[in-house]
């Protein structure tokens, strides 16, 4: 069967009339009617019945409709895959990054992407891991980096990095080489508010151990918590990479927590059911090769 005739048939059915389909296809209505008639002649069945208000699809037309969409989709997929074999892929990929990751990763990611695929477009969407996860599930985002996302069969996860959580205090506070879990109760704390993944991780780790923190303030992001620590208002519990977000001359001290240690994970996430095209596959390789942690990060004491 002629794929163009199938496409015309589907358009007429979905528009509900020959006249509307002709306008949509930018085709003269007599030409459209002739193509449908040729298709009906080839199949030996009437597919559509004209009415005063448009068309009604026949039983044979319904049978063809399901097959037509499959064939047209398969043809588009084949065309797309052949185009993807070009050395210089085109198209668009949408990448989701948490703000803390984007601060260190956005510039090198876009620079390397543009150097490798100058005819393709990359869109970077910033947001909390929870909203980025939802964007992956509903199809608005192609690939994302997430902190400790909740499991779901709708997404595939790959751990790229684990980092230890630290007790961060104003520079005037003397901390031991390692902060025990019971010690955490002795400090006034400013923490990211729920549903921040760092806060979720802290709660999931400490609440079963009946360690109630003295929380004096909650903020929307990790960098805000660090800024408040630098003003000597309170302490915080933050990932080691978050210490890069402070000033060039840090005004805080820090100590790893444990034992047992608390770790958070940076996850590469892609939709499980959506096939990855070449551009998405290559962008995921690019993300695996980048480290968002700034080179001026203080070393663990």
Write up this protein.
By secondary structure, the protein is α/β, with parallel strands linked by helices. The strands form three sheets. Strands 3, 4, 5, 6, 9, 10 and 11 form a seven-stranded mixed beta sheet that branches. Strands 1-2 form a two-stranded antiparallel sheet. It has a two-stranded parallel ribbon with strand order 7-8. Helix 1 crosses helix 3. The C terminus is likely disordered.
Compute the CA-based radius of gyration: 28 Å
Structural class: alpha/beta
Q: Count the strands?
A: 11
Number of helical stretches of at least 4 residues: 9
Order of helices and strands, N to C? HHHEEHEHEHEEEHEHEEEH
Please render the helix and strand layout as text.
Blueprint: H1 3-15, H2 18-25, H3 29-43, E1 48-51, E2 54-57, H4 59-84, E3 91-97, H5 99-116, E4 120-126, H6 129-137, E5 143-147, E6 155-170, E7 188-192, H7 197-206, E8 214-219, H8 222-230, E9 236-239, E10 252-256, E11 263-271, H9 278-288
Parallel strand pairs: 3-4, 3-5, 7-8
Antiparallel strand pairs: 1-2, 5-11, 6-9, 6-10, 6-11
């Amino acid at each position: 069967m002629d794929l163009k005739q199938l496409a015309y048939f589907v358009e007429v059915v979905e528009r509900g009339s020959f006249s509307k389909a002709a306008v949509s296809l930018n085709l003269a209505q007599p030409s459209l009617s002739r193509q449908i008639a040729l298709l009906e002649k080839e199949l030996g069945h009437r597919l559509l019945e004209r009415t005063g208000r448009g068309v009604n699809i026949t039983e044979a037309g319904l049978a063809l409709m399901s097959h037509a969409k499959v064939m047209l989709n398969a043809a588009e997929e084949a065309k797309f895959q052949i185009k993807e074999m070009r050395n210089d892929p085109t198209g668009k990929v949408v990448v989701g990054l948490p703000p803390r990751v984007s601060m260190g990763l956005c510039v090198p990611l876009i620079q390397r992407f543009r150097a490798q695929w100058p005819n393709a477009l990359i869109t970077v969407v910033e947001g909390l891991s929870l909203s980025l996860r939802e964007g992956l599930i509903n199809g608005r985002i192609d690939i994302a980096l997430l902190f400790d996302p909740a499991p779901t069969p709708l997404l595939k996860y790959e751990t790229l990095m684990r980092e230890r959580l630290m007790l961060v205090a104003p520079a005037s506070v003397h901390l031991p080489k390692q902060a025990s879990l019971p010690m955490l109760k002795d400090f006034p704390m400013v923490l990211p508010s729920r549903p921040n993944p760092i806060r979720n991780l802290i709660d999931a780790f400490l609440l079963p151990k009946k360690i109630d923190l003295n929380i004096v303030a909650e903020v929307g992001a990790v960098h805000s918590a660090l800024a408040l620590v630098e003003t000597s208002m309170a302490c915080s519990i933050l990932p080691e990479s978050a210490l890069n977000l402070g000033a060039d001359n840090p005004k805080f001290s820090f100590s790893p927590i444990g034992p047992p240690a608390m770790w958070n994970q940076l996850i590469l996430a892609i939709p499980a059911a959506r096939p990855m095209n070449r551009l998405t596959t290559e962008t995921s390789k690019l993300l695996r090769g980048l480290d968002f942690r700034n080179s001026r990060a203080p070393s663990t004491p």
